[in-house]
Amino acid sequence: MVICFAPLSEPWNGGSALTKLAPLEAILFDIDGTLCDSDPIHFCAFRELLQQIGFNDGVPITEEFYSANISGGHNDDLARSLFPDMDHEKAMQFMDDKEAFFRKLAPGQLKAVDGLHDLCRWIEGHNLKRAAVTNAPRANAQLMLSLLGLTDFFPVLVIGSECDRAKPFPDPYLKALELIEASPDHTFIFEDSASGIRAGVVAGVPVVGLTTRNPEKALNDAGASLLIKDFQDPKLLSVLEEIKPATGNGQG
Fold first, then answer.
1. Residue 87 catalytic?
2. Cα–Cα distance between 172 and 162 in angstroms, integer?
């Protein structure tokens, strides 16, 4: 598989933390908002169910509220922050209902971020190690990977709630590195949320932030080494060309 590396339209000096990774050994992927633009589906599910229970006096939440207070969060943390006065078990039932609603909506709406499948073929062609690392419930993660046709692409799937601590703590990314036996010195992460970027940075792994939905400033402030629009972004393709391995790394 050959990815065409388009010339940059203007000089670019970013990604220095990434160029130090050569030769590249592994790439770790968040799922929601990174592999697929799923945030609009989550936003619709939250907006409808929160309105049903009278959250914010029945006024529908905005995309800005969703981005600032919900996107990338772990359900246990979201239950506490959204419903500080509600019994936690009841709050978690709301989160479970919301995830079920998401799974009902996703099959008709979920789409891959542009360039994803070309990138996956490039990764396979260079025999890079990889893992999917997410705060999503396992049922959601498995559904999204299936809908994207990537179930077999990822030999490892790490779920935040199955670790000691979910993102924004580094535990899920540290677990992924351990499971695929990869060095943080030759690995980078794709993320779309500030909390996920912070998790990667604390794990000692450079992070490429996707500006799928969240504000660029928030991603930069969280510590992203590089921001890209999608997987066809010339800045990303230029870095991959610099750090690609000369030979395979032993993972099919």
1. no
2. 9
